[in-house]
Design goal:
single chain, about 270 residues, alpha+beta, Lipocalin, 2 domains, six-stranded antiparallel barrel, two-stranded antiparallel sheet, 3 helices, 15 strands, about 35% helix, elongated
């Protein structure tokens, strides 16, 4: 009996051990299965994260001199965007935007201001995404500034030009007045009259003209900052049947990005 009991206990122990092993393995399966399912769902999906800076080139020109709220702006990507080792947004993709606010420069002081936003991106094969993206930087070669908080471009100041107009007119008036005074036998009085007339003419010219306008010129470069993540499937990134990229510059070739300085905020 003792031997039979021992054999029975040994067999029961082995059986229980086998059941424990068989139940332990499935307990770990759900976590691994979920990870594999997530990996399968992500496979073939390519993302461009929110906050990505995308370099753009202007196709048309807009200026506070003629633009109105609601006017469209047209741009193209000047440099490709790569994600997960693949080009997601090729160079030459199209971006559209909208002028949302325009302020003409004043006659005496003030600068032109223009606010814009970006609305959509279209890949060369026609795949598109909508968003509401802001300006991150502008080409600063024209001495314009960008107020980053509201994507507002401010035109350059022209105080030196205004002063030069008045001084130039004053000098010219003095010379003319001196000549008239000399002919009349009173050079000093003629010079004084000429100075006054010249200064008045210069001041009238300044008051009649406006300050510099804020402008985004054709071919200039800006940076767009995405406000949200955009994603594309594998099939949406098939560019084999995409039409050839059209010409957008006067010379017949797309404008190439050039080294330049950037302005992303108004200096303190």
């Amino acid at each position: 009996m003792s031997r039979s009991l021992a054999l029975f206990v040994l067999a029961a122990t082995s059986l229980m051990s086998g059941q424990t092993s068989s139940t332990a393995t499935p307990a770990q399966a759900p976590g691994g299965l979920k990870a594999r399912e997530n990996a399968a769902a992500d496979q073939g999906t390519y993302r461009v994260e929110a906050g990505t800076h995308i370099l753009l080139s202007m196709i048309n020109s807009v200026s506070t001199k003629a633009a109105h709220p609601g006017d469209r702006i047209y741009l193209e990507t000047a440099f490709p965007i790569v994600s997960q080792g693949r080009i997601i947004i090729p160079q030459g993709s199209w971006v559209t935007g909208t002028v949302t606010e325009v302020k003409r420069p004043g006659h005496i002081k003030g600068r032109g201001e223009m606010q814009v936003r970006f609305d959509s991106l279209t890949l060369p094969n026609g795949t598109s995404r909508d968003f509401r993206a802001d300006l991150g930087a502008i080409d600063a070669r024209s001495d314009q500034t960008l107020k980053h908080e509201d994507s507002k471009i401010t035109g350059p100041g022209d105080k030196k030009g205004d002063v030069g107009t008045v001084v130039g007119s004053t000098v010219a008036g003095t010379i003319i007045g001196s000549g008239i005074g000399a002919a009349a036998g009173n050079t000093g009085q003629g010079a004084g009259i000429g100075t006054g007339v010249g200064a008045a003419a210069g001041l009238i010219g300044v008051l009649a003209s406006r300050g510099p306008d804020a402008t985004l010129s054709k071919g200039s470069t800006v940076e767009m900052v995405l406000d949200r993540q955009i994603s594309f499937s594998e099939s949406e990134l098939n560019f084999g049947n995409a039409p050839p990229r059209g010409s957008t510059s006067a010379e017949g070739t797309p404008p190439a990005p050039q080294p330049h300085s950037w302005t992303s905020h108004i200096p303190h």
